[in-house]
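Title: Prediction job returns without error message
Component: structure pipeline
Severity: low
Priority: P3
Assignee: unassigned

Description:
Job completed but the reporter wants confirmation the result is attached to the right record. Sequence as submitted:
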Amino acid sequence: MNNDLAPHLDIALRHAPPGLTATAIPRLDICVGQGSTDKAPCLYRSMICFILQGSKRVALNDDLLSYDHEKYLISALDLPLIGQILDAEGGKPYVAVSLVLEPAMLAELAATMPPMREREHNSIGIAINQMNAPLRDTLLRLLSLLDSPDDIPVLGPMIERELLYRLLQGPQGQLLRQIARPDGPLASIRRAVAWIRDHYNTRLRIEALCDASGMSRASLHRHFLAMTGLSPIQYQKQLRLQEARQLLLDGKHRASDVAFAVGYESASQFSREYLRQFGASPARDVRQLRQAIGAL
């Protein structure tokens, strides 16, 4: 364990039980795992993620990315991935902090910084880079606000701006600037992703997606695949199955009702695709998930 992150870890563990905790700081979550996990589908938001203890592997098609407390991850758009959490040495739990990115704040900051020459962004919308001392210091001051919640409304946005400023100065400054821009391929694909998220339970209409993104059919498919690793239809299917899993975990609906609620026209097709995605039938998968949650 890197001693530089010991204060961060202490705060996180005092304010977050096992599982995912939405903190009093807007858009800042703390995840505390208990035991290494198998590979499993997960949905990454457009966010920054800092691991304080343990490590994680994420796969986007043929791209495999690994990161731990020495690195941070930036996701430029909502991405369905295959992830695997690994404990730290000695069985210590996985602990991570994530901050959902606010494009308006990024745009405001980028406008105050010297312009930089940018290449067209046409690669996957996720990147990993080395952690550094200024980022560690700023992140600690942000987490420290959890011990003084009355300060969060005033100091929270100021420290978040500093954190984003440090990131804009870093190796992924171009990627963050692309998130802030209202035009360009990344902005178009972010609009397409938002449209799919809003209409995940209806039949995907490529014409409507082209209108939402402002792209031609050919350009949409090319950039969408490059940045997400999926076609629009595959992306929608991932969202449907993720949403179905959450509905089933709530325990208020039968699997057949959930299938139709998320947009499937056939309960049997839903069951087949659920099994292919999660490695178990809906009933078995939910039972295993509840047992794992109960063991935390």
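Comment from assignee: result matches the submitted record. Residues 3-180 form a domain with the Jelly Rolls fold (CATH 2.60.120).
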